[in-house]
Give the backbone structure.
Amino acid sequence: MAIRDDLYQFGPFRLDPEAGILFHGAEPTMLGQRAVALLRLLVQNAGAPMSKDALIEAGWGGSAVADNNLTVQIAALRRTLADVANVAHWIETLPRRGYRYIGPAVATCGSTAAGATPGPSLPEKPSVAVLPFSNLSGDPQQEYFADGMVDDIITGLARIKWLFVIARNSTFTYKGRAVDVKQVGRELGVRYILEGSVRKAGGSVRVVGQMIDVSNGAHVWAERYDRRSDDIFALQDEMALAVVGAIAPSVRKAEIERVRRKRPDSLDAYDLVLQAQTDVDSGMPEQVTRALVLLDRAIALEPTYALAHGNAAMCHHCLFLRAGFQEINRASSIRHARSAIMHGQDDALALTWAGFSIGMDAHDRAAAFTAFEAALAVSPSSALTYILGSVVLGWSGEAERAIGWSEQGIRLSPFDSWAWAAFDAQAMSHLLRGRYEEACRAAYKSVQANPAHSITYVQLAAALANLGRLDEARAAAARVMELQPAFRYSRQFAGVNCAPALADALGSALQQAGLPE
């Protein structure tokens, strides 16, 4: 059967102009032939204005018709989109000019026949399929290693609550076949495809993986891992953990970018949380205040949404420490954290945010680590759990354990948006142990990872002062005051219940740097 290239997929819809049908998932809609012709022209030119004349030519073949005929057909098109997916706003009116399609990215795809059944519609949350990895070892006996690694990756991804992961039984039907990842994405109804290869030679193994957004063919993530193969099963577990840890933040970043392209009035609770995430991650008052507006909307839509509560707890934590130590922010941080724990026992990310707020704002380190350990039981590859756990350990004065947790977090997710916090934990821990050069290196990494956060410069100022580099220390201190004019280190220490030995070590160095007590 001939392959046709004139099918268009956008969001949950698939348009077959030859058959004259707009599908929603596998179900045909009631959209008429003329409206289908108009929709085809709009999605073919997604994002570009289409004049009334061009649309009338597409729908009526150049016949002389009144403008109100076009208006009626556009209204029918919008009504169909609204009835089946509540997205009428994807067709934008340009007054006195025409119309424009402003919905999700449009993918052109083929079909085996005019009556072919479309694949399943995309789920609401990000969806991933892990294809069998290619065995490039030239040894059929190594198939078990490649297959076992894919099994571990699927299991690890399936533990992440906000991901929809296709089961192994479905993805392994593609084993041994040359595939088009876009076609696989359509057939399985997923947005992201992970594929890879394994090459085992002698005592070493190389694994290469890449994740592709099938809607536009863009690479979301790609990495190569080289390891010794002394213990093949331990290696399999280690590499699967590393892949899952690296993929999770990459997918979240891609999802945040996707949501940013949507109109604000189309956001549901999940998308509101994604929209807020970048500002939450900033850790600074102006941004987290903006994030709270979105998070409050998400919680109003879904009061038991654990991840929204966890993010809100982090926002109030930041406001407490960096916007005046208001008791209302501390209490709100703890309240949202407890809601996140109550409703998010199967959500590693919600448990992580909650554990951090409980540890830092309620000063209950034992409860914090109960939450962190629960998060790791749900998702052992949760890099953020290790990173935020390292911060709690750092302020508690548990220097070596803090360094260990921070290193594990960075190993799992080297480019994590919270990597600065792991380096921050390393900096204070090295400083407590008198390793000032190491503290300075870690503080510089923290500043480089998040130059807009005041606490990164606090650690840098302390490390430089201990090295006798007072001019540089004072410059770092000036940056602290620029970012957080009300900063007082004694209040900071009290706010996070800083271990006495660390408070002494940091305090004397910050005093030398010129920061106010």
In short: The chain is about 55% helix and 15% strand.
